[in-house]
Specification:
Blueprint (H helix, E strand, L loop, with lengths): L1 H5 L7 H20 L5 H4 L7 E2 L5 E2 L16
Antiparallel strand pairs: 1-2
InterPro entries: Pex19 (IPR006708), Pex19_C_sf (IPR038322)
GO molecular function, one term: peroxisome membrane targeting sequence binding
GO cellular component, one term: peroxisomal membrane
Length: about 70
């Protein structure tokens, strides 16, 4: 991903920019499919959320009496 981003040039044609965008998007999706990066690579991270086995954040339950329709995340 970094290598492709570093290739970016202000004079690139729209076609080159689109091809690079598509390639970077695919690479990022492949990385995301692998889940969280290993601790050896990124170090110990503290997170506001816990993650499930698929790498998705597990959001805390809403407080009693709060209408889920008023939640901007859900």
């Amino acid at each position: 991903v970094c290598t492709e981003l570093e290739k970016e040039n202000a004079n690139d044609s729209d076609q080159v920019k689109k091809e690079r965008f598509d390639l970077i998007l695919n690479l990022m999706q492949e990385m995301q499919n692998c889940g969280q990066p290993p601790e050896e690579l990124v170090g110990e991270q503290t997170s506001l959320f816990q993650f499930d086995n698929d790498g998705n954040p597990m959001l805390p339950a809403l407080p009693p009496g709060v209408d889920p329709q008023n939640c901007s995340i859900m």
